[in-house]
Amino acid sequence: MQPIPYIPDNAPFTPEQRSWLNGLFAGLFSVSPASAPATASLKIAVLYASQSGTAEGLARKVTKELKAKGHIASLISLEGYTPAALAAERYAVIIASTYGEGEAPEAVRPFYEQLCLEHFPRYGDLSYSVLALGDSNYEQFCKFGVDLDQKLAALGGVRLCDRIDCDLDLNKPFARWKNTLLTRLT
Predict the structure, then answer these.
(1) What is the percent of the chain with per-residue pLDDT over 90, rounded to a whole number?
(2) Is residue 112 domain-resident?
(3) Is the model's pLDDT at 29 over the cut of 80?
(4) CATH number for the domain that contains residue 123
(5) Residue 13 covered by a domain
(6) What pLDDT is stored for residue 35 in this prediction?
(7) pTM of the entire structure?
(8) Scanning 11, 110, 138, 176, which has the fewest C-beta atoms within 10 Å of its C-beta?
(9) Number of domains in the chain
């Protein structure tokens, strides 16, 4: 390591000038590494459709991790949310549970019914990902999440990563989906 040059005390400068020049040299000759470029933070809507609270809990985990990565993440229930609000989003992460015989949770049905209207706008600017939750003991396993994913794609949305369908033991599929999603957002 090379020493940083400095202006000696007997140089023909005032103490203030010497101090300023020494500070300049210290900055010019410092060996501190350049800081890594910051990744751009994205505004991401983390949406959930939950009947029993599982989807909401997973959505909270995703939101927390997105914020830790420097993104601006908002946790929002699909209950009371509108397809027009979704159309205004650039990035959306959706965790959707299936209830009963393949249906959306009761409170979320109005959102999905509005989304399925023929005259609804295209989602060409939306990048999204769906994690579908269900129970394989039912014939219509993860049907709401599957239908939601297919409808968004049909309306022009672009998948950030493939949908993953989770059964009751969801820890490993959730972790795989989340890691893929976080990688794609970087």
Answers:
(1) 67
(2) yes
(3) no
(4) 3.40.50.360
(5) no
(6) 53
(7) 0.77
(8) 11
(9) 1
The residue-averaged pLDDT of 81-95 equals 94
What's the pLDDT score for residue 142?
94
The residue with greater pLDDT, 50 or 21, is 50
Show the domain range for 86. 43-185
Is position 2 within any domain?
Answer: no
In this structure, is residue 30 part of a structural domain?
Answer: no
Sign of the four-CA dihedral 37, 72, 84, 98? positive
